[in-house]
């Protein structure tokens, strides 16, 4: 449940990662300390920074640099990988093509999703079928981004073990049928500078956990607290900003909320951000966990949602054609 938080906590998850492959990790004092901080941050803000995550800072920077180089190319070059419904909504979209609550966002982006093979999820998966469209310029783009995705996937799985413990479950609540074959989304985003219009309108994320790797020096991401104030999430170099998505809100029966956030880049510089979204299995039917119902008075606050349906309904209304 969000509160009137005024800032977003920084959590060093080093001790969690050191023990995350030990089935008895929950009994380790270092892990317990991290779990307590995760629980508090998820309840109070639904947002936290992580440090001690083990992904080299050079890779975080390199991914942003390549993204920036791509967006600097002429439109004719960028549109070679244009996003269309036929490509499973993968690829490049120009400024104003993404819409949030009916209003065009002042950003450009490349959207990538875990591959969906034809027929993989029947009719449910059909709109998302396809492979990613990677630019050939700048060189090594695909290679670097695939490395980035694979490290973010592993890291998210491990943070979710900590969150599972924080909810009072086993470390593996979010594996197997829930998120053992986690779907993922990655958005490489560019926001023009000196812009007073909204770069990305107020929204919640769709899945379990988001890892945001934002440009240093530009303060643009804002998170809404309970009284409706917009609290800044300024860049903290070397960290990820993490936030909870709609599926984790349901699993936790509202103990943790998917917090509204938005982006405005009024700074003079162009801003790059890489958002990696760790989701449930594409076909997971998500409903409140028993352990969470008990902690929230016994009644179910949310009905069942199928993640893939939620994603498809968002994706199909996110773009102007
Ligand atoms: N895959 C995720 N979570 N993307 C978040 C983008 C949010 C903006 C989008 N137009 C919307 O209205 O949701
Ligand atoms: O640009 C950012 O800092 C966050 C972007 C975001 O919230 C999203 O793409 O879902
Ligand atoms: Fe977001």
UniProtKB/TrEMBL annotation:
One of its GO terms (cellular component) is cytosol. The keyword Metal-binding applies. Residues 181-280 form the Fe2OG dioxygenase domain. InterPro entries: DIOX_N, IPNS-like_FE2OG_OXY, IPNS-like_sf, Iron_ascorbate_oxido_reductase, Oxoglu/Fe-dep_dioxygenase_dom, Rhodanese-like_dom. Gene3D superfamilies: B-lactam Antibiotic, Isopenicillin N Synthase, Chain. Coiled coil: none annotated. Signal peptide: none annotated. It is found in: Cytoplasm, Cytosol. It holds the Pfam family 2OG-FeII_Oxy. One of its GO terms (molecular function) is metal ion binding. Keywords: Cytoplasm, Dioxygenase, Iron, Metal-binding, Oxidoreductase. Residues 176-239 form the Rhodanese domain. It catalyses: L-homoarginine + 2-oxoglutarate + O2 = 6-hydroxy-L-homoarginine + succinate + CO2. Belongs to the iron/ascorbate-dependent oxidoreductase family. This is Fe2OG dioxygenase domain-containing protein. It comes from Rubus argutus (Southern blackberry).
């Amino acid at each position: 449940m969000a509160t009137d938080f005024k800032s977003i906590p920084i959590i060093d998850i080093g001790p969690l990662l050191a023990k995350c492959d030990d089935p008895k990790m929950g009994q380790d004092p270092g892990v317990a300390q991290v779990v307590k901080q995760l629980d508090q941050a998820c309840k109070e803000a639904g947002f936290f920074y992580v440090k001690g995550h083990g992904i080299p800072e050079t890779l975080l920077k390199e991914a942003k640099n390549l993204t920036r180089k791509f967006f600097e190319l002429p439109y004719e070059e960028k549109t070679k990988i244009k996003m269309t419904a036929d490509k499973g909504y993968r690829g490049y979209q120009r400024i104003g093509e993404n819409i949030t609550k009916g209003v065009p966002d002042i950003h450009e982006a490349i959207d990538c999703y875990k591959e969906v093979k034809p027929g993989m999820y029947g009719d449910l998966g059909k709109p998302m079928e396809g492979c990613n469209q990677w630019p050939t310029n700048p060189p090594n783009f695909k290679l670097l981004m695939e490395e980035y995705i694979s490290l973010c996937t592993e890291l998210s799985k491990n943070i979710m073990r900590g969150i599972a413990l924080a909810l009072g479950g086993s470390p593996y609540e979010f594996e197997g049928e829930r998120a053992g074959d986690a779907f993922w989304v990655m958005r490489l985003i560019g926001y023009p500078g000196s812009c007073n219009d909204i770069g990305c309108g107020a929204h919640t994320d769709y899945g379990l956990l988001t890892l945001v790797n934002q440009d240093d020096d530009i303060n643009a991401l804002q998170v809404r607290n309970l009284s409706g104030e917009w609290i800044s999430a300024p860049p903290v170099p070397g960290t990820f900003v993490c936030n909870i998505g709609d599926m984790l809100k349901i699993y936790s029966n509202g103990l943790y909320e998917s917090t509204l956030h938005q982006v405005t880049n009024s700074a003079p510089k162009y801003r790059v951000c890489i958002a990696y979204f760790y989701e449930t299995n594409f076909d997971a039917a998500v409903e409140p966990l028993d352990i969470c119902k008990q902690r929230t008075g016994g009644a179910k606050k949310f009905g069942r949602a199928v993640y893939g349906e939620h994603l498809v309904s968002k994706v199909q209304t996110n773009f102007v054609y």
